[in-house]
């Protein structure tokens, strides 16, 4: 094992102190004295230090190319514009982002990046491409074997046909075999080229994975954030390449067609090449959205009625008792009078219905976006989980836990009978609390600090004994179970 390099700062003053650490921000080795300076000098205290042995294990040069701005090579990437979802330097800000009202320092933008959805989604995207390329490689190799096996079978068929005719047809056999070899060579060559292309893509992805694994273990938040920003652009290009690549792939097969009657200038038969679409499935990776959203943390200025959803079967009195968004344009609802869960689009078209365990009077539901699971309180001391719109057996819960249910991280909470009060409660991106007044036909908004309250929707806005309430994930729409729960009012949230 080679000895650690000398301290870079000391070497500049002709000293040869052995290094013990590597600064990921300065990109140079440090001795004990220089490490002490990094820990005591205020401007250096935030630098990310790793063992010098770990720096020697870096699979590639991962720092310098990430820090320099591609447009202005003399400047460092120190900022992130949330409006354009792009990294930028000081020069970029003055030239291209002068009017942007939310440009963050890289250190702030990259905070908690190791626990972010951006890292998780990007990792999933990398893994998905690796899995797909491996499927392509496996498929191509199987195809090559299939072609080669098919050729061998045809050789045997040609030999059998040869034996049924007189010896003077020997040249005809040679001609047929020659044409078979030509077809095989062309098809196998093309499939080998496709296999090589898939292997090349796989190697590129593996290199990116190595860099990401190293940065996750040894890199700073800034470096991981910058790497992910560049990697998502790379993944978008590779996704398009994989999609187009799969669309062009074929599943060729060789068939031998014997000629029953032929003249002396004909072959034994013909070799036919039939191609089917490739069976490898293209799987789209997750869309990488901006990590920071600046508009969801504002308080809606007013609410405008967009539409009413009224197509709810078996609803007479108690009505819709629970609403939740399962994506930006789909909602799941339950009714105290129905033993089914319904899925609608935001315009009111019913898409699915799921039978719940009976007997039940569902009141309240929640959605876990991480594993796409819905939980319904059946109001019979039972909870039922629904994943991929398939209902699992109901679970028993303590007596009295019969009302609304909420999902927080990996835990869920169930409301009981000891607390009497409003039917529906939710909050906006700013943290303001919205309380449904069922008997007063209005909705109150309470400030996060409790210093003020106001009525934001009332009977004049069309409210009639409202029950449940929820915001969309982007806080651009507000849903209210209205008219004793017989309909859902969809309000557009105006933020400015």
Automatic annotation (TrEMBL):
Keyword Metal-binding: yes
Keyword annotations from UniProtKB, A to Z: Metal-binding, Zinc, Zinc-finger
Residue span, B box-type domain: 2-52, 64-106
Gene3D superfamilies with a match to the protein in the record: 4.10.830.40, Classic Zinc Finger, TolB, C-terminal domain
Entry GO MF terms: zinc ion binding
Cleaved signal peptide residues: none
PANTHER family registered for this protein in UniProt: BONUS, ISOFORM C-RELATED, MEIOTIC P26, ISOFORM F
Protein name per the record: B box-type domain-containing protein
Naturally occurring in which organism (per UniProt): Mytilus edulis
